[in-house]
Amino acid sequence: MLRSAALLSAIGAASAFAPMSIPSNRVAPKSSVTMQAMSDAVPFLKQPEKLDGSMVGDVGFDPLGFSNVIDIKWLREAELKHGRFAMLAVLGFIVQEFYTFPFFPKMAPVDAHDYFVTQGGGSQIIFWISFVELFSVVALFETIQGKREAGDYAFDPLNLATDEVTLARYREAEIKHARLAMIAIG
Fold first, then answer.
1. Contact 47, 39 (CB under 8 A)
2. Of 141, 151, 158, 168, whose Cβ has the fewest other Cβ atoms within 10 Å?
3. Residue 63 CB: number of other CB atoms within 10 A?
4. Quick count: other Cβ atoms within 10 Å of Cβ 66?
């Protein structure tokens, strides 16, 4: 009796690892699960819904999900505006190394920041940025309403963008340089 119980328990334990046979008339159900596309910029995150590659420079980078909460046109307008100011800041940072106006003391760019803040330069910067922001609100509303493309002020005094291909190339270069300048000056 003990031998037969041990034999049956051994067979039962072995059958737990044996493959299960499915009757031939039964078909496994198809899965309705589909994979969501992954972002090109951050491969371990899901592709943001609103970043579909339709905008210039769109590589699907939105790890915090701002495009799900805030209008994508407003975000692009802000990115271009901050990027343009950052490009000017980088230019000023570099030029300051090689040239100093005669009525300013010669100093390193990092020290110049502290000097001009104590001399009242910070209030001038806030004044002029407020002035720019005041007029850019009108452009922002036009962008959100779809009357113009984000960041497009139709300012091309040298007539560099003669056709759509050239304009697209310049827009791509601008957004890449703006992102690099924001990282550099930040």
1. yes
2. 158
3. 12
4. 13
Residue with tokens 């939105």: 62
Single-letter code of the amino acid located at 25: N
- Rounded to two decimals, the pTM is 0.73
| 32 and 51 Cβ atoms separated by less than 8 Å | no
3 state DSSP class of 34: coil
- The alpha-helical segments, DSSP class H, found in the chain are 2-15, 72-98, 109-118, 121-144, 164-185
Query: Which of 51, 95, 77, 68 is closest to 136 using CA atoms?
Result: 77
124-168 residue pLDDT tens: 888 988 988 888 888 888 888 888 888 888 888 888 888 889 988
DSSP assignments along 120-132, one per residue: THHHHHHHHHHHH
Residue 66's identity, in one-letter code, is F
Neighbours of 1 (CB within 10 A): 5
pLDDT 10s digits, 94-125: 888 888 888 888 888 888 878 888 888 888 88
Closest CA to 62 of 70, 178, 182: 70
